[in-house]
Design brief:
206 residues, TIM Barrel, 5 helices, alpha/beta, nine-stranded mixed beta sheet
Length: 206
């Protein structure tokens, strides 16, 4: 696969855009988002199913994406997907860092981590569990709550991350009204957790 992507010099790009981070620890901060195509995890509630088939998205030179990011004032890039770690991202991260851009990644942890990151958001999925080594690298653990039973999954993952890792429970958007009361009460009873909301959806921005 690395030959197809020329060592990471080309990446399957779904979209890239400048916006405000809407989730987790960095909520409210301006950042340039880069969404890569390709994911075989298949969460039934995924709000980005259009990203799953990487063949539907063009291979774009990494340098071209970096240059677009540099046209905006924020010096932070969030790479999401799809599943970013399905691709060799060391070259891409190096280009961003060389231009003074902080690198953030959102990953399920199902693949070995590629690239060098200033911030790693681990969002584990039960149908494709994270690799053991990702837990100690995570700065942030963000668990999507679709059913109340997902709270047990959240706790199962929380014991594996470092004590310095920030813990977030995020109601799945399509069930927000049903789930948010229970999430709020759970965090009140278990204050090591924080509530993450998809603030960008409330703001009606990408």
């Amino acid at each position: 696969m690395s030959d197809l992507f020329e060592g990471g010099s080309k990446l399957p790009l779904v979209e890239d855009f400048y916006t405000i981070q809407g989730e987790g620890y960095h909520t409210g901060k301006a950042a340039y988002f880069i969404r890569l195509g390709g994911c075989d995890i298949g969460c039934h509630w995924c709000d980005a199913k259009h990203t799953w088939n990487r063949h539907l998205h063009p291979l774009v030179p990494a340098e071209e994406i970096v240059q677009r990011a540099l046209t905006y004032p924020a010096r932070a890039v969030v790479v999401t997907g799809g599943e970013p770690s399905a691709y060799p991202l060391d070259l891409f991260c190096g280009k961003l860092a060389a231009n003074g851009i902080e690198t953030y990644v959102e990953t399920s942890g199902a693949y070995p981590l590629t690239g060098k990151w200033d911030w790693i958001c681990l969002s584990p999925k039960q149908n494709s569990r994270p690799l053991p080594e990702i837990y100690k690298k995570a700065n942030e653990l963000k668990v999507i709550i679709h059913e109340l039973s997902d709270l047990d999954w959240a706790e199962e993952n929380a014991v594996l991350v470092q004590k310095s890792c920030f813990l977030y429970l995020q109601p799945e958007w399509s069930r927000y009204k049903e789930i948010i009361p229970a999430v709020v009460e759970y965090v009140k009873e278990h204050p090591s957790w924080n509530v993450s909301l998809q603030a960008h959806k409330f703001m009606h921005i990408p």
